[in-house]
Design a protein that fits this description.
2 domains, 9 helices, alpha+beta, 199 residues
Length: 199
């Protein structure tokens, strides 16, 4: 570890190599709610683990990355924490698991998280979303508006995926229906639901 500080109530750690981060995870993966990993830019002149390697090591131990904050001109904070067992697995992270398994790098905590996801369904929950498949209830809602389906299907793939995942992640049936209704009504006007509007 190169440095220890705090940011937004969590410890900040920096590692020179993927191996040193992996060693830390092997001892601490179940001992903390999360850390800010300090990652230095390549041109900073500071030896540092890079982001892709950090994500790989995190997955091996059942952790995941989330928020990113700028630290200074030479580095940034990347938050890593134990994966929420209820969170759905993206295609990208499942492909990482396959690669790490083939390389025999997955550790027991990571294997346990994958097994749990396969048991509970979070492993495959986003499969149809990532394939761009419109669920029947959304398809029905789109059919109620002239041009809604054609406008929706013409949205960029990343936009459609974001909307479909937003609908998919609804915790209650009523919430899902509200999101479907909003998506269909807005699509009829060639507008995209669930879009961040900068104020």
């Amino acid at each position: 570890m190169l440095a220890t500080e705090t940011h937004k109530g969590f410890s900040c750690l920096a590692f020179k190599t993927a191996a040193s981060f992996r060693q830390w995870l092997s001892k601490n993966h179940g001992q903390t709610q999360g850390i800010w990993l300090i990652i230095y830019h390549k041109n900073s002149g500071v030896a540092s683990i890079n982001y892709p390697d950090a994500v790989d090591q995190a997955i091996c131990y059942g952790w995941i990355d989330s928020k990113i904050n700028q630290r200074d001109e030479n580095s940034f904070f990347q938050f890593f924490s134990p994966r929420n067992p209820k969170s759905n697995w993206s295609r990208v992270n499942k492909e990482k698991v396959e690669r790490l398994l083939a390389a025999k790098k997955m550790a027991e905590p990571g294997l346990a998280m994958v097994a749990l996801a396969q048991k509970t369904g979070t492993w495959t929950a986003l499969d149809q979303v990532e394939q761009g498949i419109i669920p029947p209830d959304l398809d029905k809602a789109l059919s109620l508006y002239s041009n809604a389906r054609s406008f929706f299907t013409a949205f960029p793939p990343s936009v459609k995926r974001g909307i479909l995942e937003w609908i998919n992640n609804a915790k209650q049936d009523s919430t899902r229906q509200k999101r479907i209704d909003a998506t269909a009504a807005m699509a009829a006007n060639n507008e995209r639901a669930n879009q961040y509007i900068k104020k």
